[in-house]
Fold this sequence. Notes:
Elements: E1 14-28, E2 34-42, E3 45-51, E4 64-74, E5 77-87, H1 96-99, H2 107-119, H3 124-137, H4 157-175, H5 181-190, E6 199-201, E7 208-211, H6 213-217, H7 220-235, H8 239-251, H9 267-289, H10 315-331
Parallel strand pairs: 3-5
Antiparallel strand pairs: 1-2, 1-4, 2-3, 4-5, 6-7
Helix pairs in contact: 2-4, 3-5, 3-7, 4-5, 4-9, 5-8, 5-9, 7-8, 8-9
Amino acid sequence: MESVPVSQFVKDSRFDGFLLVRSADQRSASNGSKYLDMTLGDKSGEINAKLWDGTVPPPEAGSVLRLRGTIHEYNGRLQIRVERMRGAVSSDAVPMEALVACAPQPGQEMLDEVNAAVEGIRSRDLRRLVRRLLDDAGETLVYFPAASKLHHAERSGLLHHVTGMLRMANHYADEYPSLDRDLLVAGVIVHDLAKIGEINAAPETGIVSGYSADGMLIGHLVRGIARMDEAGRELGCDPELLMMLEHMVLSHHGVPEYGSPKPPMFPEAEVLHHLDLLDARIFEMNAALSRVTPGGFSEKLWSLDRKLYRRAGSPAAEWEDETALGAGKENE
């Protein structure tokens, strides 16, 4: 089903489709009757909605609704007067990419890539340990974001982050044969798994509502190595290998200011840190520059402590000019 994006809603038009619940409350009108006051939206924007039926409980924030209604104007703002609505079900095949920011690949496709990487780990201890930790994460991985606001804060963002790092990790291992490819691949896969539990993300949509108590008090670095240590001991993993993988997770933020109590202290840990930093920064830069007019500067990004410039031209245009110039010379 195709429907008009929220940003293109016009007064007195009809809507029949799916929208994401940003917030919903039951309220009382001046005459005492109850109604639902909701903020609904998609990737393009949001709109207030009213359902004048006090018997309907408020839907959960982060859930998806199938609804039908009329768009009208109230106090100078567009609003949906909802006639019918229900929660979305699996058979609806809701186009999530229209409702929320999504990774460029389907979550299951990326999870298959990660699973294939696990099978390629030659070290029996590392392979079994990574498999145990992935199994603990479960299907939540398919939709889980990598962050609440910054890098890869999108549906399936955690897998987007991991698969991007995995591809780069293999290039590094090809370039530097001294690196232990198994250890590096294992570190990439498990380094952020404990974010599941650190942040609260809505099932299916991946929208983050905040940090959990465990995330605020413990955090994914400490919780991640605690789980890893427990699983590694249960599996009888080589103690030194387990210690090195734990160090990679503990040190992948690089410095104490970003949460790592230890700096990377061997090559695979150093590479993991730089892969994590590069993948996160390129994502944030691309997101910021997508909102900038060519030839202009972004607002200062607090995570990078700088503004960014978006080039006015494009490499493709320059190559086309050179090709045309070369063709002209050949015809002279």
